[in-house]
């Protein structure tokens, strides 16, 4: 029946003669719906009903069909059952029946994007799909049409994530300098661009495994490996059945390509470096990632569910991360701390702790890189850093809730501001649970910057410099905090970068892990790389500007805060954000002190010098007293005989009053 109907709808797309000698039925409608008629009426029926809402594909028309090919759900009325015949379309490529025209157009487009244009009923050869070759970081990748739209292609490639790939490469390069060789996994390969860059630049220092559960993506990864002259080792089963593909000796670079679910491969094998980049949230793969990752290994994850992390879909954030968040001025850092809290909880369930090396939140993604510390003690230390945040919705002051099991009657009193006492109702909310520890490791970031300079990654260097300044909470002028006389440090771009000297500790056989003493020393070295912990969160200078006043330039304002005795730096989360340990009240005081009025009259040029907030209060109190005197004078005049107030009896005030 299906083949006959498809033949009929193709027949209906052919032109019909003007006149028929006898009555004929409609080939796409049942006889009880449209009776047999003459040619002119049948032609009008086909044009107005079937051809008008048809779907065109390579010169053919897929007309809507009313025949009983697709039976809709039965309707029960009393004791009788009626089966309604639903109108539908037939796909000439895969013989699927689809009810709506928009769904049919999308169905055909998906076939075209996948290169499936050969029809079962069309004998003419279909044109082959043209693949495009893109180049990034000296690595060529072959992509399908619409490669930048994940819903329309299996092998998704986003050129806007180039910065994200370079950050991950620098983190892997730092780990490769610590121990060699390392086994790294790209759990969601897609086109395989990330794993190819690892193998092409780091070569024998890494053993790359690219995984994807989609068969078309695995095929494209193999083609891209051959395009970059890499040897491929394919594993498509859960058992260790490998098949080598490609020419070359054993000394050539070899990439292992697997076709498994990401959770399965991370359960079966152990890795030193794991990167998770699914479409959306990555919380479904965290437990598997931390189960078999090696000690002092690195787990990096990229979250692209921006709508939930940036508090546009708060119910989704509560469902995925178990975290209550609202839209704030520091929403990007709030998103990063939300992801890290989920990572810390997953690691703690596997008796592992984490040390956050890097947390970046930009327009399209949130990237978190953590080092895994095995043992219950590091797991407990990491779990203690997950706390709730008290956020004032009136002035946007914030503070992490104090540790302890005692329940406070009014936790909003912990806020430095007094909005909870002066404003009616509840002015603050409790957000979290969030990560309350540091977001950066200064020593690791400096080594990442050194690797970026060494491999010529120019796009990521400005971001890394900003993040290093943010980790140390210092301005760019005070960037070089180390003296050049220190050992094991190299100067690159005006920055003294510490490079690990692992030659004395690497007197072991290749492929073997270091002993416990070397591991302990590496942990101590990593802890000494941490400088004083940077302040949590930041303030937006535009959010707290004074109406009617011109605020100073951002760099000058940073100097003013630094001269006042506070630690200060810019932040990559917000181009107009200021990370400082100054309270919000002092932040506003310094901002008001060095702001100038926008109008020409009144004060002369120069900053508005207000040493204390009390001066503003005295001016408001004087204005209130003057208004009270006016009201009292008016009441006295109204109580007179005439009941009229004369202008000459009223006191006059100058503009200064």
TrEMBL record:
Q: Fetch the InterPro entries from UniProt.
A: SAM-dependent_MTases_sf, Trm1, tRNA_met_Trm1_C, Znf_C2H2_type
Q: Where in the cell is it found?
A: Nucleus, Nucleolus
GO BP of this protein: tRNA N2-guanine methylation
- Cite the entry's keywords alphabetically: Isopeptide bond, Metal-binding, Methyltransferase, Nucleus, Phosphoprotein, RNA-binding, S-adenosyl-L-methionine, Transferase, tRNA processing, tRNA-binding, Ubl conjugation, Zinc, Zinc-finger
Q: Which domain of life is it from?
A: Eukaryota
Listed transmembrane segments: none
Give the primary localization class: nucleus
Q: Which reaction does it catalyse?
A: guanosine(27) in tRNA(Tyr) + 2 S-adenosyl-L-methionine = N(2)-dimethylguanosine(27) in tRNA(Tyr) + 2 S-adenosyl-L-homocysteine + 2 H(+); guanosine(26) in tRNA + 2 S-adenosyl-L-methionine = N(2)-dimethylguanosine(26) in tRNA + 2 S-adenosyl-L-homocysteine + 2 H(+)
Q: Where are the annotated segments for Disordered? A: 625-657
Where does the C2H2-type domain lie?
91-111
Write out the biased-composition intervals (Basic and acidic residues).
626-639
- GO molecular function list: tRNA (guanine(26)-N2)-dimethyltransferase activity; tRNA binding; zinc ion binding
Q: Which GO terms describe its cellular component?
A: nucleolus
Q: What is its EC number?
A: 2.1.1.216
Q: Name one Pfam family in it.
A: TRM
Annotated family: Belongs to the class I-like SAM-binding methyltransferase superfamily. Trm1 family.
Name of protein: tRNA (guanine(26)-N(2))-dimethyltransferase
List the source organism.
Answer: Meleagris gallopavo (Wild turkey)
State which gene encodes it.
TRMT1L
């Amino acid at each position: 029946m299906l083949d006959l109907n498809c033949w009929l709808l193709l027949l209906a797309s052919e032109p019909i003669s003007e006149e028929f000698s006898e009555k004929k039925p409609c080939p796409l409608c049942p006889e009880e719906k449209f009776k047999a008629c003459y040619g002119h009426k049948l032609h009008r029926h086909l044009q107005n009903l079937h051809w008008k809402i048809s779907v065109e594909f390579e010169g053919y028309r897929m007309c809507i069909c009313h025949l009983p090919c697709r039976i809709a759900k039965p309707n029960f009325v009393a004791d009788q059952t009626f089966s309604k015949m639903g109108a539908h379309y037939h796909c000439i490529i895969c013989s699927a029946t689809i009810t709506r025209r928009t769904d049919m157009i999308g169905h055909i487009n998906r076939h075209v994007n996948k290169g499936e244009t050969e029809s079962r009923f069309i004998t003419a050869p279909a044109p082959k799909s043209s693949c495009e070759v893109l180049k990034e970081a000296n690595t060529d990748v072959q992509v399908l049409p619409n490669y930048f739209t994940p819903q329309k292609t299996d092998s998704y490639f986003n050129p806007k994530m180039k910065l994200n790939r370079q950050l991950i490469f620098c983190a892997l390069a730092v780990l490769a300098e610590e121990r060699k060789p390392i086994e790294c996994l790209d759990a969601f390969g897609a086109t395989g661009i990330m794993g190819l860059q690892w193998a092409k630049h780091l070569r024998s220092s890494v053993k790359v495994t690219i995984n994807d559960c989609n068969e078309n993506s695995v095929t494209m990864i193999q083609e891209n490996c051959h395009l970059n002259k890499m040897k491929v080792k394919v594993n498509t089963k859960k058992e260790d059945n490998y098949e080598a593909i490609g020419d070359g000796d054993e000394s050539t670079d070899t990439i292992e390509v697997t076709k498994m679910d990401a959770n399965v491969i991370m359960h079966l094998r152990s890795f030193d470096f794991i990167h998770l980049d699914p479409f959306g949230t990555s919380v479904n793969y965290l437990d598997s990632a931390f189960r078999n990752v090696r000690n002092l290994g690195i787990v990096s994850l990229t979250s692209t569910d921006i709508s939930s992390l940036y508090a546009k879909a708060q119910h989704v954030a509560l469902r995925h991360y178990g975290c209550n968040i609202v839209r704030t001025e520091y929403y990007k850092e709030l998103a990063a701390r939300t992801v890290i809290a989920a990572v810390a909880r997953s690691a703690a369930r596997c008796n592992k702790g984490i040390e956050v090396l890097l947390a970046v939140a930009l327009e399209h993604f949130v990237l978190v890189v953590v080092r895994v510390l095995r043992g219950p003690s590091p797991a407990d230390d990491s779990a203690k850093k997950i706390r709730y945040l008290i956020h004032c919705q009136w002035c946007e002051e914030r503070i992490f809730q104090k540790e302890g099991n005692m329940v406070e009657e009014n936790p909003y009193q912990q806020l430095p501001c007094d909005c909870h006492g002066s404003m009616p109702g509840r002015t603050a909310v409790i957000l979290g649970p969030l990560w309350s520890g540091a977001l950066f490791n200064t020593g690791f970031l400096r080594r990442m910057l050194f690797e970026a300079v060494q491999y010529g990654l120019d796009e990521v260097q400005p971001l890394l410099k900003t993040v290093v300044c943010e980790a140390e909470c210092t301005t760019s002028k005070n960037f070089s905090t180390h003296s050049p006389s220190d050992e094991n440090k190299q100067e690159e771009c005006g920055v003294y970068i510490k490079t690990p000297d692992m030659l004395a500790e690497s007197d072991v056989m290749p492929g073997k892990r270091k002993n416990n003493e070397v591991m302990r020393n590496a942990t101590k070295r990593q802890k000494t790389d941490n400088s004083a912990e940077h302040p949590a969160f930041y303030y937006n200078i535009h959010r707290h500007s004074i109406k009617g006043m011109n605020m100073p330039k951002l760099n000058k304002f940073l100097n003013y805060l630094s001269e006042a005795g506070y630690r200060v730096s810019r932040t990559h989360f917000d181009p107009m954000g200021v990370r400082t340990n100054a309270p919000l009240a002092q932040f506003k005081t310094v901002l008001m002190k060095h702001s100038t009025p926008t109008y020409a009259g009144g004060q002369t040029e120069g900053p508005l010098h207000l040493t204390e907030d009390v001066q503003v209060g005295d001016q408001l109190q004087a204005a209130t007293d003057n208004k009270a005197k006016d009201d009292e004078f008016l009441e006295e005049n109204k109580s007179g005989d005439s009941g009229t107030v004369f202008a000459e009896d009223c006191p006059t005030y100058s503009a200064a009053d």
